[in-house]
Write a structure and sequence with these properties.
The chain folds into 4 domains: 48 residues; 83 residues, no CATH class; 166 residues, 2-Layer Sandwich (Nucleotidyltransferase, domain 5), CATH 3.30.420; 112 residues, no CATH class. Helices cover 38% and strands 17% of the residues. The chain contains 14 helices and 14 strands. It starts with a helix and ends in a 10-residue tail after the last helix. The chain is an alpha+beta fold and 454 residues long. Helix 1 packs across helix 3 and helix 7 packs antiparallel against helix 8.
């Protein structure tokens, strides 16, 4: 418009032999510039007033090849990454170093929106697509635009952080297609004060084993936290169906293990109350599947092997590092962790002085490896430690369990060189072990769903 205005003023000035001072005042320039404009007009006409950079790309403008690469890579390789993550991946894996705003602008111009876009951005994006649909007469193009219109999603609200590292650990599990075509559950734990992911484990479902693995990572790497904040899963607490009274809530084996470590557990049925872990689930669902796919992960074992490496990278980018005071207590020994993170099941001794567990029969043995026999009907607890060892706890103490084979390994009638096998000494927990029968029964008597042990 400015160029056209200069052209019209100078044209009128020459045509009517007007006043140069008035033309200079109208254009906001000097009389000398007016003389230059007149000379240029007579020599080149209207073309003189066009800027020299007209139809030329700026020197700092991205090339069409780079723009095509950014759109093509996102559409074919990094299609499930959000724009921030995609910008990082371009630099790490493709050697294309651009700002996040440049990548966002390129993709939005190509009618591509981030999977993590806010509601405001989604609404503006949908409005622009609808305007394009109304203006186009090509049905195929309109149908393609229609498929890109998406619904807005609610965002998680924020809440104040805790004061100390280890004061509150939020735990949750996310059921998602992390790799391949099958859904798995990622168990996660995040520190509320620092935003540091302190544990993660993949399993087929949300299980006690998954949370035990996360707890072991926390105990081994950091120590004993003050409190866990979780949802009301039966892994953490049990509520009698139809009973609205919270005083009848009963806690589970995970809670009993935490009580031995002095860890408090608080539960909630409101997702917004534990927004830190909910937002972490969203971030993981956006970023982690991309990395797992690029790393060629296809099994849950490979995913669990790669997860610590990813968590370290995640914490380096997102966790706060402002010297927040830690309230983690001293890390327990590996032996104590193995014993506390156990699964306990009540059993009775049968008429063969043995115990049936997991479709196998076991005999009780003492520290010297010698069998100990109990009367039929003797009650006790079968304890499977985190490492898989089996023990049997009764009022008389704690004993190891040794599987009874279906057939004898050797025959005294046909093995002519009999060998004397000395009983193997067993490492058995001390009498003050947390899973001792009387300790657990005292705890269980308070629980409505375990009244069978009373």
């Amino acid at each position: 418009m400015n160029e056209n205005n200069k052209y019209e003023v100078i044209k009128e000035l020459i045509k009517n032999d007007g006043n140069k001072a008035r033309a200079a005042l109208k254009l906001g320039c000097s009389k000398r510039s007016i003389d230059r404009y007149i000379a240029g007009y007579k020599a080149e006409g209207k073309a003189f007033f066009e800027h020299g950079n007209r139809n030329k790309k700026p020197i700092h403008c991205l090339s069409s090849e780079t723009i095509a690469d950014v759109v093509g890579l996102y559409s074919n390789k990094y299609y499930d990454a959000n724009f921030t993550h995609y910008t990082e991946l371009l630099g790490e894996r493709e050697g294309i170093f651009l700002s996040e705003s440049a990548v966002r602008s390129i993709l939005l111009n190509a009618d591509i929106i981030s999977p993590m876009a806010t509601r405001r951005v989604r609404r503006a994006f949908n409005k622009r697509l609808k305007e394009k649909m109304e203006s186009t007469t090509n049905k195929k193009e309109a149908d393609a635009l229609l498929t890109k219109i998406i619904d807005a999603e609610d965002a998680h609200p924020r809440r104040p952080r805790s004061s100390h590292f280890g004061e509150m650990i939020q735990m949750d599990a996310s059921f998602h297609i992390w790799f391949g075509d099958e859904k798995y559950t990622l168990h996660l734990a995040i520190d509320d004060a620092t935003g540091m992911v302190v544990g993660g484990y993949f399993d087929k479902q949300e299980t006690l084993n998954g949370y035990y693995n996360v707890l072991k990572q926390i105990l081994t790497n950091y120590g004993i936290p003050y409190m866990f904040y979780t949802d009301r899963r039966t892994v953490f607490e049990y509520r009698k169906k139809g009973d609205p009274d919270t005083k009848d809530d009963s806690f589970t084996q995970f809670s009993y293990a935490c009580s031995q470590l002095g860890i408090q557990i608080e539960t909630t049925s409101i997702p917004q109350a534990k927004g830190r872990i909910e937002r972490l689930n969203g971030t993981m669902q956006s970023r982690l599947p991309v990395d797992l796919r690029l790393e060629g992960v296809t099994t849950v074992e490979q995913a669990n092997e790669y997860l610590p490496q990813y968590i370290a990278k995640h914490n380096a980018k997102f966790a706060l590092n402002n010297n927040i005071k830690s309230v983690f207590e001293t890390q327990p020994s590996a032996e104590r962790i193995d014993m506390i993170l156990a699964v306990v099941t009540d059993r009775k001794v049968d008429n063969g002085h043995s115990i049936r567990f997991d479709n196998s029969y076991y005999r009780t043995v003492n520290k010297e490896g010698l069998p100990i026999y109990f009367y039929k009907g003797t009650k006790g607890l079968v304890i499977r430690t985190f490492s898989g060892e089996l023990f049997f706890s009764t009022d008389d103490g704690i004993f190891a369990l040794e599987e009874i084979p279906l057939h004898e390994r050797t025959s005294k009638n046909f093995n002519f060189k009999p060998t004397t096998v000395k009983p193997k000494k067993r490492v058995i927990p001390k009498q003050n072990h947390p899973w001792r029968l009387d300790n657990f029964i005292a705890f269980a008597k308070k629980q409505a769903h375990r009244a069978v042990l009373g």
